[in-house]
Specification:
The complex is a heterodimer of chains A (about 450) and B (about 725).
Chain A (H helix, E strand, L loop, with lengths): L5 E6 L2 E6 H5 L6 H5 L11 E3 L3 H13 L10 H11 L2 H8 L9 E6 L7 E6 L5 E5 L2 E5 L16 E8 L2 E6 L9 E6 L5 E5 L1 E3 L2 E3 L1 E8 L6 E8 L5 E6 L5 E6 L11 E5 L4 E6 L8 E6 L4 E7 L14 E4 L5 E5 L5 E5 L12 E4 L1 H5 L12 E5 L2 E6 L2 E6 L4 E7 L6 E7 L2 E6 L5 E5 L7
Parallel strand pairs in A: 1-3
Antiparallel strand pairs in A: 1-2, 4-32, 5-6, 6-7, 8-9, 9-10, 10-11, 12-13, 14-15, 15-16, 16-17, 18-19, 19-20, 20-21, 22-23, 23-24, 24-25, 26-27, 27-28, 28-29, 30-31, 31-32
Helix pairs in contact in A: 3-4, 4-5
Chain B lengths: L1 H9 L13 H19 L8 H13 L3 H24 L5 H23 L1 H10 L5 H14 L2 H19 L6 H13 L2 H30 L2 H22 L4 H14 L3 H5 L6 H6 L3 H11 L5 H22 L1 H4 L2 H21 L5 H15 L5 H16 L5 H17 L3 H17 L6 H15 L1 H32 L27 H17 L13 E7 L5 E7 H9 L5 E3 H8 L3 H12 L7 E4 L10 E4 L9 E3 L10 H30 L1 E3 H12 L7 H13 L3 E3 L6 E4 L2
Parallel strand pairs in B: 2-6
Antiparallel strand pairs in B: 1-2, 3-5, 4-5, 7-9, 8-9
Helix pairs in contact in B: 2-3, 2-4, 3-4, 3-6, 4-5, 4-7, 5-7, 5-9, 8-10, 9-10, 10-12, 11-12, 11-15, 15-16, 16-19, 18-19, 18-20, 20-22, 21-23, 22-24, 23-24, 29-30, 29-31
The chains are: A mainly beta (about 450), B mainly alpha (about 725).
Family (chain B): Belongs to the cullin family.
Organism (chain B): Rhynchospora pubera
GO molecular function, one term (chain B): ubiquitin protein ligase binding
Chain lengths: ~450, ~725
Amino acid sequence: MANRDRVRFNVGGQLFETTSTTLANAGRESMLGALLDESWNPGQPEYFIDRNPACFSTLLDLLRTGALHIPSNVPEKLLYREALYYGLLDHVRGAKWGPFDGNTLRLADSVPGRAPGDGTAIRGAPDGGCCVAHGSVVHVYNWMLEERRPISLDYQQVNDVGYIDANSIVITARERLGKGDGGMAVFSAATGELRHRFRVEHGRQPKSFTAGALSLAGLDDHRIFSSCKGRLNEYGIGVWDHNTGQQVDFFYEHPGCSLGDADKLQWLPSKNCLMVATLFPRTDNCFIGLLDLRDKSIPWCWSDAGITMNLEDKRVLHAIAMEDGHSICVINQYDDLGFIDLRAGNTNSAGTGVRWSSRSKLMNQKVPYEESCYPKLATHNGQLFSCMNDSISVFSGSEHVLTSTLRRSYGGSICDFSIGGDRLFALHNEENVFDVWDSPPCPII
Amino acid sequence: MNSQSQRRKNFKIEAFKHKVELDPKYAERTWKVLEHAIHEIYNNNASRLSFEELYRSAYNMVLHKYGDKLYSGLVATMTAHLNKIAKSVESAQGGLFLEKLNHKWADHNKALQMIRDILMYMDRSYVPTSHKTPVHELGLNLWSDHIIHSPNIQARLQDTLLDLVQRERTGDVINRGLMRNITKMLMDLGSSVYQDDFEKPFLDVSACFYSGESQQFIECCDCGSYLKKAERRLNEEMERVSHYLDAKTEVKITSVVEREMIANHMQRLVHMDNSGLVNMLIDDKYDDLSRMYSLFKRVPEGLSTIRDVMTSYLRERGRVLVTDTERLKDPVEFVQCLLNEKDKHDKIISTAFNNDKTFQNALNSSFEYFINLNNRSPEFISLYLDDKLRKGLKGASEEEVEVVLDKVMMLFRYLQEKDVFEKYYKQHLAKRLLSGKTVSDDAERSMIVKLKTECGYQFTSKLEGMFTDMKTSEDTMLDFYAKQSAELGDGPTLAVQILTTGSWPTQPTAACNLPPEILTVCEKFRTYYLGTHSGRRLTWQTNMGTADIKATFGKGHKHELNVSTYQMCVLMLFNSADGLTYREIEQATEVPALDLKRCLQSLACVKGKNVLRKEPMSKDISEEDVFYFNDKFTSKFVKVKIGTVVAQKESEPEKQETRQRVEEDRKPQIEAAIVRIMKSRRVLDHNSIVAEVTKQLQSRFLPNPVVIKKRIESLIEREFLERDKADRKLYRYLA
């Protein structure tokens, strides 16, 4: 009776014996699941499969143990192809890396760039793929880090990119004078096809515009935000439904609060507000504010207006709202972290209100050399990440203690990094190479 | 070197002009294999097929870019099969039609599953990138297009389904399992297929059916049985949904039944002659009422319809009740009647109307409305309490007492003129306390506590003062007798109740002339009291006292007479005379004429209590009458209580007087309220003052706007307020 459960395969001439219980892990929606389904005369003494036995062996072990071990004689790409044949690709992806933790990251891969310099942004996809905005083209990679068809918005300078979901990429691009192009659109990540454009209307008149920083509202909220610069001083924040592409709102710039030039947008669900940070304005001052779109008010803002700047002064170069929604973390040119409390009223008074932690003094770091990139910040599951020069620092705990440093490639300093699909992607400035970091699957014991 | 370069020249490397492709014939051959397999699957011959081979074939076609060919081939093959199936379903006779359809649907599903299995790779890689419909969904769409929407099937299917429902509604038993399979099929094909091909026509037909049926029912049924039928239909429809329709259909079909059977006939139902809502209320038809409530609750305006009818019925019934002159004769009966009415409807609301708050409010507002229609209600409620506290609650347990008091408090809450009630309550309480007639001190105090929690300290402070007086009096008398017993000898025993002026509803009446025996004791008490309490003044309220006297009649019959102080004064006169004229009595006693007449009436004209004899014999006392000691008086009791003829209810002039006193008392309260309001607001217009004063005082009474205006004028005269110079409607507060 025990034999009932046993299944024999002849794969490319090599015999395998396993059990239907093991094969059940493949699921009904896989080739093996269908093969053993009762509608297809199961119970044969032996099933012949005309495929590569080494790969089958690896995949069978994956079904047996849930862990992926690729023997050195099996090329990874071949294994992926075989997994796709059996319908087990998702199993492979799930076993390839573990849940994200900034302190266990290992370098998974380095992908060389297409051209030197000029990398604008890198974004991680929810499934572990990524895309790199490079000049006027966005290079898209699946989670196996194979490049897909690149996408572009009429070959305009790309300002920002983002994933709506694993298969949809939204791009913002600069408007070319006199062309009425540029703007913002959604593309298919798989095929690079244009899905739809986002248009801006002022007084029911469609207008061309330059779209800057992007932010998505969240899982159940279909809104997408972007900073917009129009031709006739129509500056502000545009709001669209990312499913339909319809414009749902527009927040016009208030005097003294530059929004159209914003470098960073972030939706804060707990406050029902959008954080806008304009850190490199052409005129005026640095501005960070929370926008309430319902009544078009700015319930909280901060600015460095009134500080006489000299080179040694600490300048806010990037900002991110912490996940608890209580504070905004900022970083300066010396890699110092600073915090601005969101709960304490309107701290409009001249750059005070930032609580700096003087890491630079402790680490006795030199004033950064020329041609470096501005530092950037990210948060994930309570951990805080900052990039400076060619390394990424990981800060953990409520006191933001430095716990790890990631440094690897030789492509110069890091110009952007992103966390998505349980992976961290870091884009280097000079060679346009990007590093992929992920956490290993759970250890054996 | 030369030769080498020469050779290089000859050796030409050609770029591939074409990608290496599979032999097109191979693609055709592979498709033939797959096509054959699809045929075999539809013909139930799949057991001879090799899944691995078919899967690999489909994989190869996609891999070598023949995905288009594979997909379009699939569509064509499946369509051909479905057209064949359509023919076979169409040819099915009568009742076999659904069976056949169901059978073929099961086959198609199984085939579709197997086809999807072999084309799984295409589904995974070709379909998403080329914007095609996945195989399973494609199979369902083709089924809808070629079977369900085939011209020979669509209408027939719809008619068959609707006919089955109709047959079930008229009592036939149908094959629910088959029905469920078919509706399940429509749902599987997408909610729009289910809705368009079944649900919409189903709802239309149902609306039509129930519109007709309700018309028929309403012509021949009474309200109760109509509601029963409607409820049964509603339950049937819900049951039908649970057996073989989409759960989402439930709200839709029930709303059809609700609209057709209830909403469209609501007014007619509640007002139905002899069986409508009013009759149900009168006859306490809890089941019917409960059914009406739960059914009407389902439709908009349903509950408000019931509520409105109930309210107007209650108001009308209450109005009749409180203005019925017959009932007004007995206040206790009157209040009991109100309480019964309240109990009855409370029970209806709790058993049939789910204790609905809005219904409770409607009941309360109705009571408030009609109780205040009769301005004697406060008096009657107090009289009811008086009756209960005098004797009605004798032997009742503490809980029972509480229940009665709580019920009365509920009526009290409805009163607008709470201050009038207070007046009467005070009077009645005073009488109870002074005559020692109260049944239970606890019950009295419990009532005071209830009034206090309802209306505040102010309301009851004087009532509480009365209790304190009673206690003090008792102590004083004990002390008096302890200290003075030697001096008093065996004269008459005196019991004095010392009442604080102001706490008690006393009328300043001249004291009558007391007999000398009593006067001596009274004087002794006065000396004692003023000796222990300096700075006080004692006035005798002879109109409120009682006396026990011993009398000996003819043949040595001895009786103890329990009489009022006035009566005692009169009787004592007969110790020294056998006959006295009215004028002589009046002169000797100085009892006020009205009281004297009453007391003589009770002494001479009541049968069994006639210790005096009057000449001439008549019912009424005239000033010419002569009174004699009735030597022949007999009674089987040793103790004889001679009551005074007093109307329990107030007579018309008394009522006027009380009313006047109430109005008088209201004046300072209204003025105080006006001053309070103006002090905080400084400037206010007339209408706002009236509104605010009414709001502040409504817990005690409803002030009349005319009276408020008069009070404002009086305050202006006394320079508490002034009119604004510019705007005459504005008043200013003068500090």
